[in-house]
Amino acid sequence: MWRGILVFLLLSIPSVAAEARPRQINPIPFAHEPCSVLDNRPCTPSYCSPLEPGPCIPEIDYPYGENLQLTIESVPKDSDRAKYQKPDHDLDTIGDLFAELRTCWSPPSDHASAGMQMSVRFSFNKAGGLIGPPRLTFATAGVPADTRTTYLNAINASLNACLPLKFTGGLGGALAGRPIAIRYVDNRELGK
After folding, report:
1. Which residues form the signal peptide (predicted)?
2. What is the number of structural domains in the chain?
């Protein structure tokens, strides 16, 4: 009988200790929680050592800020006109860079296509020059090859006309080598 009471007490002590522990707020964003292979719910796998004391919270590498994305319209909306004004100082923020890139764009006049969209990807060096030519990543489907070539040439000419950009030391160091993706949208009403 004493043995049964002792076993009962030993089994009830961990459950009482677990209930007495204060409930902690989940410090991991988006409700991701470390888990075991025996858990039957979606969870974030843990790569911690079993020899570490306390709970193990894995580091999750979210892909925020991997590349900079910008859309440039040939005819900006009235509410966006302020974003299309060239900064009067050295480029110090991402907003300044985007405003400068918007003012550089001049769409082609020949072989233009209403609703044409084209995306390119490129990087800057610290001095504000391009690291290689822009790489075409998207073009509107069904557009003739000469129209695509005309738009790509217009993009290259527009960027080259603005180069080198005048970065401050901080922005130049932060942007050097980072990919920038720009989507050009020709929203002009052509042929009217």
Report:
1. 1-17
2. 1
